[in-house]
Amino acid sequence: MHLSDRVRAISPSPTVGIDTRAKEMARQGVDVINLGAGEPDFDTPEFIKEAARQAINEGFTKYTPVAGIPELRRAICEKLERDNGLSYEPAQILVSNGAKQVLYQAYQAVCEPGDEAIVIGPYWVSYTEMVKLAGAEPVVVPTREEDGFVPDPDAIAEKVTPRTRVINLNSPNNPAGSVYPRRALEAIAELAVRHDLWVFSDEIYEKLVYDGAEHVSIASLGPEIKRRTLVVNGVSKAYAMTGWRMGYGAGDRDLIRAMDGLQGHLSHGISSITQRACVAALTGSQEPVAEMRREFDRRRRLVVDRLNAMPGITCPTPRGAFYAYPNVSGLFGRRARGKVLDGSSAVAGWLLEEGRIAAVPGVAFGDDRFLRLSYATAYEAIAEAMDRMASLVAGLER
Ligand SMILES: Cc1ncc(COP(=O)(O)O)c(C=O)c1O
């Protein structure tokens, strides 16, 4: 049977692939340690769950406005004002099934076939596929380990053509853990304004920053850049709510209206129950967020220290999100059971088969020298994974 070129052009998500394989091994009784997943291991805070139970008890279980219930859109406006110094009207907010759907719709709303979208590398796996699904072409601008994985505005400028429509930013960054400093964002903002480009700013890891790093939303750098930026955020990572499916976009009224029109045919408003839970998350105590962040920080220091002690591996210290992103290219050419480790997929495969540790090969994010290890799992499990990995590395043949 025929399948469209459009869907055949999509690469399956490698992060979901690893996660599925690790979960399958666990089901078969293998004591696999899953450092592949991109979700907090914490439970959703109780007061948020209580708001959902209350919504069900009150019969708040019907269709809602496509863009979200007014209380939630207001709560999002208040959050953006409080945390980011950004002032929006509720009509500039769209609530979707996760940041993922916001971004998908945003690309659909602004791209024509043949357009280009600049994606900063290493990149979250879905950006390039979403760009392709909108008929456009992803143009990857890599960042460098030596620059702390912060984008170089000049390198972006070199890739701007008359077909460029969007610059896609993600800070704090998945997978590299970089947090873009204000001065880099200022230069990118100036570039976007000069070339009349959209900026899609994925700020989903905003709350997870360490070592005094400051999250800056590019939209807060002035009215010109605010007008052309879609700020994308959500509750998945900050409130341990990945399964509830809520993300939002804030930006230009016409863009939001266009995305609302699309969503009306795609999925309508998101779960009414989730929306009530999200009002509680955004307006209630933020202490659970701070608590989770402290624990992520403790794990971050453990994983970075242990990785850097392994010969052949260097791990820059991430300042945001919950991933370590070690350079494992020093292991390439070494042999494990006679098989040569010749790239990040071979290293990830070896760790999974020999060490029962699931990690995502960097090739999935556009750089084969790296590996992504999520520290959104228990401290003791990370310590055990590092013991296993250290002994595997020590046992490698020359
Ligand atoms: C950078 C980035 N953006 C967006 C998402 C998706 O978030 P949501 O659960 O809100 O769809 C993820 C999830 O892994 C992510 O890493």
Quickly describe the structure:
The chain is an alpha/beta fold and 398 residues long. It has helices at 5-8, 14-27, 46-57, 70-84, 98-110, 125-133, 153-159, 182-194, 223-227, 253-266, 272-283, 287-308, 344-355, 379-394; strands at residues 33-34, 93-96, 116-121, 137-142, 164-170, 198-202, 229-234, 247-250, 323-324, 335-336, 339-340, 357-358, 360-361, 371-374.
Q: Could you explain the architecture of this structure?
A:
The model has no long low-confidence stretch (mean pLDDT 96). It is built from 14 helices and 14 strands. The chain has 398 residues and is an alpha/beta fold. It starts with a helix and ends with a helix. Helix 3 packs antiparallel against helix 11 (272-283) and helix 4 (70-84) runs parallel beside helix 11. Helices cover 42% and strands 14% of the residues. It folds into 2 domains: 5-43 and 288-394, Aspartate Aminotransferase, domain 1; 46-283, Type I PLP-dependent aspartate aminotransferase-like (Major domain) (Aspartate Aminotransferase, domain 2, 3-Layer(aba) Sandwich), CATH 3.40.640.10. The strands form 4 sheets. Strands 2-8-7-6-5-3-4 form a 7-stranded mixed β-sheet, with helices on both faces. A 3-stranded antiparallel β-sheet has the order 9-14-13. A two-stranded parallel ribbon has the order 1-12. The chain has helices at residues 5-8, 14-27, 46-57, 70-84, 98-110, 125-133, 153-159, 182-194, 223-227, 253-266, 272-283, 287-308, 344-355, 379-394, and strands at residues 33-34, 93-96, 116-121, 137-142, 164-170, 198-202, 229-234, 247-250, 323-324, 335-336, 339-340, 357-358, 360-361, 371-374. It is globular, with a radius of gyration of 21 Å. Bound molecules: pyridoxal-5'-phosphate (PLP). The site of pyridoxal-5'-phosphate has 13 residues, from helix 5.
